């Protein structure tokens, strides 16, 4: 599931905050890592400099992965590199598809402050276009040495009760079991009320407190079943049920439990079929403080 990991780099320290995540997976999961640098046409004259940079990053990533490896042999850690020319997002998506990449790990901005891999730019285009799981790592205020003790100790999984929303679970199961991590499950009973159509308009009638409590009981039973499946795999797990705005509650709980990763499917939240602006995943990425793993559920097609 994590055999091949792709890390796009643009030459900036900000983009390199994605590397510790790939290093830990390479060391502990035996993943093969490919570092990809895409030169736009205007940068072609600096190709040699790009080669030197990417070679330096390969050596650094191997050293970082070795810290996590239980195997003393450097040959057990595979870090490759590739330099391509063209539009960054298109080349990243195309490379990931052709090379059958299992996970793209990308910083949410970079480009040395000139351009940014932000929503609406390279990272956004990648997550919208690729079928591959994407881990989006926040670059703001983060330094490489921050991750010396490990990056993926605790994962928060928001679930909405749908099978589509559960698509992310196998990815977290493998991470947690192999990295000896802890999992926190969350279901949010939404504050918006059910919608009723009346002649000429659509209205919302608030849930009563009794209805909210019933929904919370149902959600707790659902999460308990999911939690038991994790326990069967000897994974430490707990769960919480909240009521309120879904995105806000995810962000608040991630901060409260000091989650290292929020992992969620891109389908199931109110029937969304893409990572559209305004979706729960988008809100968690923009307003949250935690790296975000997004897994496209099998029935969701790119647009």
Q: What is the count of helical runs?
A: 8
Shape: globular
As residue ranges, the low-confidence spans are: 110-120, 141-146, 268-278
Instruction: Kindly report how far apart the N and C termini lie.
Output: 24 Å
Q: Give a short account of the largest sheet.
A: 10 strands, mixed
Class by SSE composition: alpha/beta
Give the proportion of residues in helices.
25-40%
As a whole number of angstroms, the C-alpha radius of gyration is 20 Å
The count of DSSP E runs of length 2 or more, i.e. the number of strands, is: 12
CATH topology of the largest domain: Rossmann fold
Strand order of the largest sheet: 3-2-1-4-5-12-11-6-7-10
Strand content: 15-25%
Question: What this model shows, in words?
Answer:
With 303 residues, this protein is α/β, with parallel strands linked by helices. It is built from eight helices and twelve strands. A ten-stranded mixed beta sheet has the order 3-2-1-4-5-12-11-6-7-10, sandwiched between helices. A two-stranded antiparallel sheet has the order 8-9. Helix 1 packs across helix 2. Mean pLDDT is 83; it is low at 110-120, 141-146 and 268-278.
């Amino acid at each position: 599931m994590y055999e091949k990991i792709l890390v796009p780099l643009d030459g900036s320290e900000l983009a390199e905050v994605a590397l510790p995540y790939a290093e830990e997976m390479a060391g502990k999961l035996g993943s093969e890592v490919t570092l990809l640098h895409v030169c736009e046409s205007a940068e072609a004259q600096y190709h040699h400099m790009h080669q030197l940079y990417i070679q330096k990053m390969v050596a650094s990533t191997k050293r970082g992965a070795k810290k996590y490896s239980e195997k003393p042999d450097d040959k057990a850690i595979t870090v490759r590199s590739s330099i391509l020319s063209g539009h960054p997002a298109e080349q990243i998506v195309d490379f990931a598809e052709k090379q059958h990449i299992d996970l793209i790990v990308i910083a949410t901005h970079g480009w040395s402050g000139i351009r940014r891999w932000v929503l609406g730019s390279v990272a956004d285009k990648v997550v919208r276009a690729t079928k591959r799981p994407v881990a989006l790592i926040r670059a703001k205020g983060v330094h490489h040495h921050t991750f010396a003790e490990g990056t993926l100790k605790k994962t928060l999984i928001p679930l909405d009760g749908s099978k589509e929303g559960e698509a992310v679970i196998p990815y977290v199961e493998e991470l947690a079991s192999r990295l000896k991590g802890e999992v926190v499950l969350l279901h949010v009973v939404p504050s918006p009320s059910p919608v009723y159509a009346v002649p000429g308009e659509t209205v919302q009638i608030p849930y009563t407190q009794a209805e909210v409590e019933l929904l919370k009981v149902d959600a707790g039973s659902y999460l308990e079943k999911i939690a038991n499946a994790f326990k069967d795999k000897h994974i430490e797990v707990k769960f919480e049920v909240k009521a309120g705005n879904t995105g806000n509650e995810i962000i608040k709980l991630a901060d409260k439990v000091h989650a290292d990763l929020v992992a969620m499917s891109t389908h199931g939240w109110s029937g969304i079929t893409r990572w559209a602006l305004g979706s729960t995943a988008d809100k968690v990425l923009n307003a949250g403080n935690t790296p975000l793993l997004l897994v496209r559920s099998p029935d969701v097609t790119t647009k």
